[in-house]
Amino acid sequence: MRTTLDVVSALILENGTVLAAQRGHGAFAGKWEFPGGKIEPGEAPEAALVREIREELDADIEIDGLYRIVEHDYEDFRLRMRCYRTRLASPTFSLLEHRSAFWADAEDLGGLDWVEADIDLVEQMKRDGLVR
After folding, report:
1. How far apart (Å, rounded) are the C-alpha atoms in residues 128 and 132?
2. What pTM was computed for the model?
3. Burial of 63 from C-beta contacts in 10 A (0-12 / 13-18 / 19+)
């Protein structure tokens, strides 16, 4: 039986774009993702998201609501990812864990090498008009 990893991710939206971040280390280094991370035991998902964005981007966010829950089976674990529509509370951030990041529109998103769990999410965001 696979272990289920519960995580959160921030779809940080601004003017029809979303912040795409390139992983800097780990098994998926170099792949693109939306910032976020693991929910600690006893931690509310929204609190985990705020904490993770501070740790990864040195930024505060405002959460606009849950967008989608993605479940994806990797070879050695199952991922359950709560994806939230968010925005930056202030215009600046710093890359503390990622190699690169940029504001991506719908066309940009299609050209990136995403972690597997985010591929369908990206397509859904385009269909729903979250990015243009």
Report:
1. 10
2. 0.95
3. middle
